[in-house]
Amino acid sequence: MTDFISLFQYTFFQNALIASVLISILAAMIGTYIVSRKIVFISGGITHASFGGIGIAYFLGLNPFLGAAIFAILTGTSIEWISSKGKVREDSAIAILWSLGMALGIIFVFMTPGYTPNLMSFLFGSILSVGKSDIAIMLIITFFTALFFLVWYRPIIYSAFDPEFSKINGVPVAFFRYAMAVLVALAIVVSIRAMGIILVLSLFTIPQSTAMLFTNSFKRIIPLSILFGWLGSFMGLFMANHFNIPSGAAIIFMLTIQFLVIKGVAVLLETRMKRQ
Questions:
Q1: Are 194 and 135 in contact (CB under 8 A)?
Q2: Rounded to whole angstroms, how far apart are CA atoms 161 and 156?
Q3: CB 248 within 8 Å of CB 126
Q4: Per-residue pLDDT of the chain (276 residues; tens, 9 = 90+)
Q5: Rounded-to-10 torsion of CA 190, 41, 147, 122
Q6: Which residue spans traverse the membrane (predicted)?
Q7: Are 206 and 259 in contact (CB under 8 A)?
Q8: Residue 71 is inside which H or E element, if any?
Q9: Among 42, 22, 87, 50, which Cα is nearest to 198's?
């Protein structure tokens, strides 16, 4: 415990804590939208397809996360277009883009001349290596996402859950759906730096699932998701330090344990109430 407390004096650990707070806030907003609208699989497609942008950016000598952002946005808006037009089955389109992105990423990374980057850093991330520039980007995207939700909360909800009725009432459903696709893509990309492609989607689903054990209200799920997301992240960092294991995997493990414990307690209480 003493060793863990001593970490607070180091800049890298302070950056990790700040990043965990920002990602928890961002994931709470975007993740609640994803889970409530039941588009987790779509988000998985965006997450894995973004690896294609990372590979192409490496090959062209550009910032890999810029490539990931562009690829993620294109994938997110393409899936939204496909789902609205219905020319191709949505699950088929997601699977194609998912596989294509991963394949392109691997191909271009290995075609890059000279030093081949370590793929593990993108696949599994490292919140302890987050720098001030990463935090600045997280802060900007979190701020604009929160502002978007505050200003257009009702149209976002209406267009997500009852698009036909929203269209009749003059809500620009297409605009809000495409805007949310872009925000989902950006949230995923900035979180990849900390959690990695393989693990990042869990951060957008597990805290929200835990929060939904207490409430079904969209407004209440968000703050509860922030709380559970940050608690899981903090406990994960403690576990990573204590057992000397990867921080991203430790965070997801603790988020899962947190969900299972609360779910178990809820089931026990429900069983007792029925017996009484």
A1: no
A2: 9
A3: yes
A4: 566 778 788 898 899 999 999 999 999 999 999 888 888 887 888 888 999 999 899 888 888 889 999 999 999 888 888 777 766 776 777 888 888 998 998 898 888 887 666 666 777 778 888 989 999 999 999 999 999 999 999 998 888 888 888 888 888 988 998 999 999 999 999 998 888 887 888 889 999 999 999 998 888 999 999 999 999 999 999 898 888 888 888 999 999 999 999 999 988 988 888 777
A5: 0
A6: 12-32, 39-59, 65-82, 94-115, 135-153, 174-190, 196-214, 221-243, 249-269
A7: yes
A8: helix 64-85
A9: 50
Residues across the chain: 276
Both tokens of 99, joined, read 């596989």
Going from the N-terminus, what domains does the chain have, and what CATH number goes with each?
Answer: 2-197 (1.10.3470.10)
Burial class (CB in 10 A: 0-12, 13-18, 19+), 136: exposed
Return the structure tokens found at 273. 């109430």
Coil, strand or helix at 131 = coil
Q: Report the amino acid identity of residue 33.
A: Y
pTM: 0.89
> Comparing C-alpha atoms, which of 99, 118, 90, 120 is closest to residue 52?
99
CB 135 within 8 A of CB 22: yes
Residue in this structure with the two tokens 């969209």, named with its chain if needed: 218
Q: Which amino acid is at 61?
A: G
